[in-house]
Task: inverse folding
């Protein structure tokens, strides 16, 4: 009787209907962006406003420009953001379970060489009396890897891995330490000089030249490039690949993170800057107007003396027609297409070996794994929770992948996500109530060979004029620290141009 019941249960399991999964694409700004790109006519309103400075773009760079101006006591500016919320690649969402990221989800604890980051985090209460508040540090276990059919702690080879794997990793870290000690790999980035030749080849080519052939090491380096740059180690320059590992001190203290990822930083900055922020305000054109500039939006036309252009640089030729002739090579700014998916988990999936970590990576996967939003909450249950899954689209030409982002339906992308996660969680489909997906056609700058040493990048970074460029793509690497640095630098240049000399910090 018991055996018959068991067979019946197995048959019922095999023929049961799959659980329906709700969800949708949550991005809509590409529609407006494509209208601007295509030069679609737009109506101009009669409303005009005169203000000294306009900041275009409300990502970390734009927010940092506004933050710096306020710190220096200057408040005659407005920040315009296309989306209905600021944040750019650091946006976040929330539901009744938790807040969760839509993009960047951590900042490595900065060393003393990055005082701007420390200054911001001191203001936000993350750094107190020279010590990092433990509530903002990532909790253990930090990371696990699904490999050879089970989860293992950490991402590098463990005790059971082959001696060949350990030998290759050890020699790789010796090379990285050599470059770290050289001091040329830094944050913020300095233009390559002694190591400029590394920018002329790919990271894969450099690894072949150095005799790094072990599959596990190659996968690890490729994963790092996809994770930070949205491109494979074959597509990233060797200088960028080495920078990922060599730009930070070896004894790093961990990561600053929150359930909503870097959206926590965005929300705190937005609270302080709210009177100056205008969301849902796409800029249609920036024109020279005698000795001033005219910034045209759908609702208001702003007359100003200077612009901080913190939007992605590839948009500049579409929004600033006068610039297209002066900088004809902006096409060398190449960007990586991405998507992120937030999965709403209402019951815990089956696990093997290592317990769930903050970051969870599947070996040899096309995806980049997932982070668990509630991992930062003490004694949080395994479910309900939210997993944020990341995927950089590196397999084909970025143009083709961007078009596929627009063309493929939500159901196909959802299937892609669940099929990937099934490798580690065979019953994942029974545990997911909803999958929402955000598409990022130009997710981040792609540091392909030759870009970091290119004259067009350097020329734009040093641009003199009433428009100051501020996006992290000027650095060639899209990380929080570079976005903050570019925003602050552009703000200071604009204030200097306006003759503003009050350099004492305003009250926080």
Result:
């Amino acid at each position: 009787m018991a055996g018959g019941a068991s067979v019946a249960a197995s048959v019922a399991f095999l023929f049961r209907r799959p659980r329906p999964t709700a969800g949708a694409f949550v991005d809509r700004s590409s529609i407006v962006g494509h209208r601007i790109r295509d030069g679609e006519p737009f109506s101009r309103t009669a409303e005009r406003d005169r203000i000294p400075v306009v900041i275009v773009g409300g990502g970390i760079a734009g927010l940092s420009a506004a933050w710096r101006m306020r710190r220096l006591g200057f408040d005659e500016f407005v920040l315009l953001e296309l989306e209905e919320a600021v944040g750019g690649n650091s946006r976040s969402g929330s539901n009744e379970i938790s807040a969760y990221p839509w993009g960047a989800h951590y900042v490595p604890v900065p060393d003393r060489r990055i005082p701007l980051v420390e200054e911001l985090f001191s203001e936000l209460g993350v750094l107190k009396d020279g010590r990092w508040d433990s509530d903002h540090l990532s909790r253990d276990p930090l990371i696990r890897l699904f490999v050879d059919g089970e989860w293992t702690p950490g991402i590098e080879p463990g005790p059971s891995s082959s001696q060949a794997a350990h030998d290759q990793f050890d020699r790789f870290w010796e090379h990285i330490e050599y470059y770290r000690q050289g001091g040329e790999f830094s944050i913020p980035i300095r233009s390559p000089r002694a190591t400029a030749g590394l920018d002329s080849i790919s990271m894969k080519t450099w690894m072949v030249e150095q005799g790094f052939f072990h599959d596990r090491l190659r996968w690890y380096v490729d994963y790092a490039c996809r994770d930070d740059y949205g491109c494979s180690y074959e597509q990233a320059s060797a200088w960028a690949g080495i920078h990922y590992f060599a730009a930070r001190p070896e004894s790093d203290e961990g990561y600053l993170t929150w359930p909503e990822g870097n959206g926590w930083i965005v929300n705190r900055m937005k609270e302080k800057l709210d009177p100056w922020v205008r969301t849902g305000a796409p800029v249609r054109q920036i024109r020279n107007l005698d000795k001033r500039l005219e910034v045209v939006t759908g609702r208001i036309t702003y007359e100003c003396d200077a612009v901080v252009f913190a939007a992605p640089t590839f948009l500049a030729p579409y929004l600033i027609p006068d610039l297209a002739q002066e900088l004809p090579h902006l096409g060398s700014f190449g960007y990586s297409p991405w998507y992120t998916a937030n999965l709403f988990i209402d019951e815990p999936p089956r696990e093997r070996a290592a317990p769930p970590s903050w970051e969870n990576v599947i070996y040899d996967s096309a995806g980049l794994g997932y982070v668990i939003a509630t991992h930062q909450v003490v004694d949080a249950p395994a479910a309900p929770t939210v997993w944020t899954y990341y995927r950089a689209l590196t397999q084909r030409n970025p143009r083709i992948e961007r078009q596929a982002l627009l063309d493929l339906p939500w159901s196909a992308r959802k299937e892609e996500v669940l099929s990937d996660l099934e490798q580690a969680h065979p019953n994942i489909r029974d545990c997911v109530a909803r999958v929402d997906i955000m598409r990022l056609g130009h997710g981040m700058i792609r540091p392909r060979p030759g870009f970091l040493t290119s004259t067009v990048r350097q020329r734009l970074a040093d641009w003199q004029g009433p428009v100051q460029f501020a996006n992290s793509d000027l650095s060639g690497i899209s990380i929080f620290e570079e976005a903050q640095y570019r925003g602050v630098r552009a703000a200071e240049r604009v204030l200097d141009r306006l003759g503003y000399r009050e350099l004492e910090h305003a009250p926080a």
User: Anything to note?
Assistant: Residues 8-15, 503-508 have pLDDT under 50 and may be disordered. The first strand starts at residue 22 and ends at 25. DSSP finds 15 helices and 23 strands in the chain. Residues 163-182 form the longest helix (20 residues).
